[in-house]
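Appendix B, Record 12. Input sequence as logged:
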Amino acid sequence: MRVGGFVKDLKHVAKLNESYMPAPVELGKLKWQGDKVFKNSNFKIIQPPISMQKLIDLLDKDEYHYACVDAICESCFVEFKCKDVRVQNFIDKIQLPKNEDIISIFSDFIHYYIACGNGFLLKMRNSLGEWVGLNRLIPSEVQIIENFDEFNFLKPNYLQVKSGKKTFFEGKDIIHLLQKNSMSNAWGVACKPIIINIEILSEIKNYDFNRFKNGLLIDFMIFVEGGELREYTDENGNKIDPFEEIEKLFKQAKGNNNSHSTIIIEIPDTNAKVKIEPLRQDQTDFKSLKEDNREGIIAYHRVPRRLIGLQTPGQLGGDDESDMNVFYNMTVKPLQERVAFLLSQEFKSEFNWDVKASDFEFGDITQVLESFTNRIRI
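Logged structural output:
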């Protein structure tokens, strides 16, 4: 909480999560694009547990989060090949949007999967209904329609809601890769654990910008952990705003630089821990707090610090080769295997081709870097 003429607060985790809840889409107010599939639109939409758009917007809010996502995407598809000749011929002839190739399409697929927990690809079909191409769908424009098969497994259909219009797609036309979570059996959710890190870094950036543009505007910043500083009623029945009380105490305690003052703050919430950072006095730059939050983002993505420019020269730790090997085998390769399995199932259901997940080759980033390093040495 900032104390001063302008009070701005960073909500506690529960309220912060509420701000990421999605707004329901009113399908009745939208127009159908093309032929209307249903006589009525009373089908059940499965709402996402968290706003997909706000999760995607986090990429623009923090450069470290974006760098981690980009590093994984760029490492995941170094090449796109398949040992099965039928599949390779299909990939070579596949129709894609203008100025796109198969690697860029799947890189975007994984980009959204990591950013918000859902990657969607649309199977483009010709006039005969044959699968001939691929296109991306942005998760924030997708609505999932509840539908079950004869075994009562969820086999959803999909709507694309875009520019005030809705387009229906059968489940067989959508390739959906989702991160499993306990919040929904239809939607994936990503990045929820690091929302608080990104929000704190955003507040620090705002403060740094204001200090750069206008000079220091405030004396103190207050961090509250484990609870809340909320309005309460004292023994005389008076309503007390804790932040107004703190501000009064600070004003009363002001003196010259060599003086010493003690203030006592009463906190009704026994779980709350309060930390007060002086700003104007010592030109605080929150270096340790920034580093802690960045480490949280990197730990969540499991990306080597060197890949996003945070490795300090001469610092103790792993070397480039071992870091990249761990990154590839623990982060990238499992993701490649999930995509390979998903594609093998799609080709089997579409063409009845017995394609194995192991037939797909997406490349090993460690071998590419090793080859590049050897050429540099030569």
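Residues 21-36+43-200+284-378 form one domain.
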